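Minutes, project check-in

Agenda point 3 was the complex the collaborators sent over. CS summarized: two entities, 632 residues total, and the question is how they sit relative to each other. Sequences were read into the notes so everyone works from the same version.
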Amino acid sequence: MTAGATPEGTTERQAPLRGSFLYGVVAVALAAGLPFLPFANDYIIAVAVRMLIFIALGQAWNIVAGIGGLLSLGHGVFLGLGCYAAGILFNEYAVPPWLGIWAGGVLSVAVALVMGAMTLRMRGVFFALATIAVSLALDQLARHYVDLTGGDNGLALRFLGNSLWFMQSRTPTPFLYAGLTFVIAYYWITQWVLRTRLGSEMKAVRDDEAAAAAAGVAVFRTKLLGLLLSAVMTSFAGTLYMQSYQAIDPETAFGLSQAIQLQLPALIGGLGTSWGPIIGGTIMILLSESTNWGSTKLGIAGVDILVYGLLLLAVVMYAPKGIMGLFDRRTRGAWRP
Amino acid sequence: MSSIETTMLPVLQAVLSGILVGGVYGLLSIGLSLAFGVMRIVNFAHGDLVMYGMYVGVVASTLLGIDPLLALPASFVLMAILGALQYRIVFRRFVGHTTLNQLLAAIGLGLALQMAAQLVFGVDARSAPSMFAGSYDLVGPFFFARAQIVAFLVAGVATIAVELLLRKTQWGKAVRAVADNIEAAEIVGLRSQRINLTAFALSCGLAGIAGTIMVTYYPTDPTKGFTLMPIAIIATTIGGLGSVGGAFLGGIFCGVIQQTTAMLWNSALQDVPLYFLLLVFIAYRPTGLFGQRSE
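CS then shared the predicted structure for the full assembly.
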């Protein structure tokens, strides 16, 4: 099981941060108590919601890319499927998102199955190219079938007022708790994957495919399982995204800058760790909010794109293990992607 | 005119236009394929160098008042220098394996280049018509834009030149040696870093030529790099990752499929069959049509 340069005991499942349980309790309490703080307003809560949703999306990407080492550059596909499936079912047939979320999940599994079956036996670069191709294909299709998707203008949910059944709300506060539930659940899933045989096998395949195969790991099946799990998680979080923002368009779902926003949390925080996407997502949203504020002040559009680009470069060149890598001496010598 | 002729003529026209358009897609792709073949680098920023090449044409035509075609050598040199800088600063450390970090570094670089172009040139679309703009040639029942014929010829000449460079010169031999086995090449005295640097600069110079020739009939804006990249990637994969001649033919193949799709089905969905074709190739023929090296 100890493939490549990753000896047992140096990986993240052995307590990445000292007292991480305590940090967890403090973080959850902070997020949950936010609406009761004196300075809280809808804007601050909305930023927190965005943070939680992107942390959840980052946690999902972290499964396939961080633990599994698969170079998915098109996870917007599953985000988009989660958004569009729930949105179209609700607008056309008044299906509540409680059911729509499963439709998005099933669709995402189907797409991931086809994509994975066709590409995961090949070298990693082909999988990366395939993920881009699928997201571009869905982008063109979503732009073209205007009746179903709203085309370039996007799809807006019919708003019915506050309703738990239809997951709609005038204020962002309910989505704060929904987002928090997602993040806690996904943290737990990440921990579970890292602890179980699946996680060990995924890491073995990531570190050295040939060695893993020689040790009896079913390489293709392991990769496919990781992709399916990550796709469903992304799609579920996508439906939450849809309910919270009440609109989606092809660029937001399948565009490149969205794909990068799905990757940055895990990359900044630390690939393959359970805390990485949480720390990274928090930093990414704070940074993006402040650059948005700055670029409106300066009157220059697109500064956030520049910041994302330079951040990607800086992380992969100078801190490939993310912030968790700076904290934890024990991950030294662990996987460098 | 019989009914077969009326249905077949537009299709044939689409195929022929596709070959012309595809030649330039080929030119977009040969540099990409070269960088992958020699260094296993998938340079997602390649499209952004094409975009800068387009702006070289725009600057030549609007600021200097000369024909963009005369700016081709300058574009090649400028992009080669930019490429060499990229190699020194970013890609040098990623030679040999296509990794997640290499792909992400290239994307990050591409985003930064795109944003820089936006700050300098603004978001508006710009074009740089050459002296051939607006003239059409009739060949039998078919018509062609002369600017596209010229572009196709430049693309063909550039591809043949690169193939000859790789096959017939001492430099080409060294590049192929480093690509095949970097350690063995160093043992016999080749300086692999320097050879890779020149190969990468050549790859980026080709992107510059592709951009400048394209802007004579296709307007540019800062997002063009990311718009053009998918076609180049598909052409490269279909032609066989790492094969220069294959990438050119892959480009033509893509052009033909795209134009006939636009003609027979829908021009808004002209790229969709290409994306599915890429998946099919990856699944059933990952070495592409002309790729020799399989790994």
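Noted in discussion: The beta strands of chain A are 155-156, 247-248.
Follow-up: revisit at the next meeting once the mutant set is ready.
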